[in-house]
């Protein structure tokens, strides 16, 4: 399974789930593709293709692909969704319901493993936003 495709589809599904796409979600999407080394061209190409499909079909296909993915990829993908859902400072009920359905009901993943990776990804995103500044001695 192509991990990039799964992450982009989950991103598309999640940002559509509450009916509002906000600037924080878009900004985090840019950080996510940078962290995962997905080209902006590939990302935009996939998103444009997804806009032509029914969200229910995308969701079914994505969950099917997730089920065939390595467990570590499943956890990382869900962790990205948690980081994304919190990007605007609040995880919407619809976002949480979608994440819960996928990680718990469909994949039966351990929440503690997801939270551990979520913390790592949040740090990575923060580092991309504010790269470390070299400190010089006085």
Give start-end ranges of low-pLDDT stretches.
Answer: 132-138
Q: Class in CATH?
A: Mainly Alpha
- What is the CATH topology assignment? TerB-like
CATH architecture: Orthogonal Bundle
Largest sheet entry: none
Shape: globular
* Count of individual helical segments: 7
Query: How many discrete domains?
Result: 1
Distance between the termini: 52 Å
State the helical fraction.
Answer: over 70%
Please indicate the percent range of residues in DSSP E strands (runs of 2 or more). under 5%
Radius of gyration: 15 Å
Global structural class: mainly alpha
H/E element sequence: HHHHHHH
Count of DSSP strands? 0
Overall average residue pLDDT: 89
Brief sketch in words of this structure:
This protein is mainly α and 138 residues long. It has seven helices and no strands.
Verbal overview:
By secondary structure, the chain is mainly alpha-helical. The protein has a single domain (3-128), classed as TerB-like. It has helices at residues 3-17, 23-35, 40-50, 55-67, 71-85, 93-106, 111-129. Helix 1 (3-17) runs parallel beside helix 5. The protein is globular and about 35 Å long. Residues 132-138 have low confidence and may be disordered.
Topology:
Blueprint: H1 3-17, H2 23-35, H3 40-50, H4 55-67, H5 71-85, H6 93-106, H7 111-129
Helix pairs in contact: 1-3, 1-4, 1-5, 2-5, 2-7, 5-6, 5-7
